[in-house]
Amino acid sequence: MARPSIAPAAAVPAPRPRPAAIATWLLAVACLIVLMVVVGGITRLTESGLSITEWKPLTGVIPPLNAEQWQAEFDNYKRIPEYQQLNQGMTLAGFQAIFFWEYLHRLLGRLIGVAFALPLLWFAWKRAIPRGYGWRLVALLTLGGLQGAIGWWMVASGLVERTDVSHFRLATHLLTALFILAGLVWTALDLRDLARDPASRPARLTGAGLAVGLVLLIQLLFGAFTAGLNAGLVTNEWPLMNGRFFPEGVLQHRSLVSALFNDPFLIHFVHRWWAWVTVAALVVLARLAKRGGDRRASIAIHSAFGIQILLGIATVMTGVNIVLAASHQLVGALLVASVAWGAHAVGRRRT
């Protein structure tokens, strides 16, 4: 009697890493963060950041939908010092205008969280994440969640005794966003290299890249302080400040350390002149990137800092025109991405 034949089981395809697809996704999230930074800048420029006085991570996605809900939000705002000391008599329509920017800022934050978390879960489920990159992606997701908490920590600083948020907390919020942006760009570039050559290894952060990053960090820190203290409004002159090179009377009532972190005049002075130290460092990085074989990164760095300097000067001389100031924040974020690109090019390992 013939034995029935048994068909061989179909081979289960092995999981296939998809570095190129993951890189594209990360760069898309990076673009959302750049948009978030711009909207955050507009929120600060329009003094809108304290218009929403509660943190509702889930239900806060739904804005007020009727007159009663709008009045309840407005009544909450009326209880904080910003309204009581600065905005007495504001109309409901005026409140709705500032509410829009803070709501949009928070909505974008939620969108970024979803745009990162859901694809990450999908790539993990499909086992498409290359070996060694899972921990890095989870770390970036964790930083994103922390950023939301930092945002509320920042807002909370302006709800009880102050009429604005702490400039230290604002700086923490902005610098964390830019660090996440740099991390996304760096990781995407590593994955693109891996897609081109499966034997490639992640780029390393060189001493030159670290040094330039620290110089830029100082400039970004004082830029955040400038925004948080409205220090861009202390003068509309350039290169002098109200007829003087160094602002008058800065150290009469404060120590140098206290003034360096709290005095709007000195902070503005440091931000405008440390910019040239930053330019020198960026020129070095751009040349190293070009020497390392990535001319496009060099062009991106030169273009970003050149435009940024012009926008900074124009912002000051126009009394902080909101379009120019928001553009300054936009190009600042693009500069961070360009520096991450250049530092990655310098640290790329040749196989």
Task: Report on this structure.
By secondary structure, the chain is mainly α. It is built from eleven helices and no strands. The chain has helices at 19-45, 67-78, 81-86, 92-125, 134-156, 167-196, 207-228, 256-262, 264-291, 295-317, 322-347.
Give the topology.
Elements lengths: L18 H27 L21 H12 L2 H6 L5 H34 L8 H23 L10 H30 L10 H22 L27 H7 L1 H28 L3 H23 L4 H26 L4
Helix pairs in contact: 1-4, 1-6, 1-11, 4-5, 5-6, 6-7, 6-11, 7-9, 7-11, 8-9, 9-10, 9-11, 10-11
Could you name the key traits of this structure?
351 residues; 0% strand; mainly alpha
In short:
By secondary structure, the protein is mostly helical.
Alpha plus pi helix count? 11
| Portion of residues within helices | 55-70%
Helices and strands, in order, run as HHHHHHHHHHH
Q: Regions with pLDDT < 50 over 5+ consecutive residues?
A: none
Span of the ends, CA to CA = 61 Å
- Characterize the biggest β-sheet: none
**CA gyration radius, whole angstroms:** 24 Å
Residue share in β-strands? under 5%
Morphology: flat
Question: How many DSSP E strands?
Answer: 0
Mean pLDDT: 94
Helix/strand/pairing class, anyone? mainly alpha
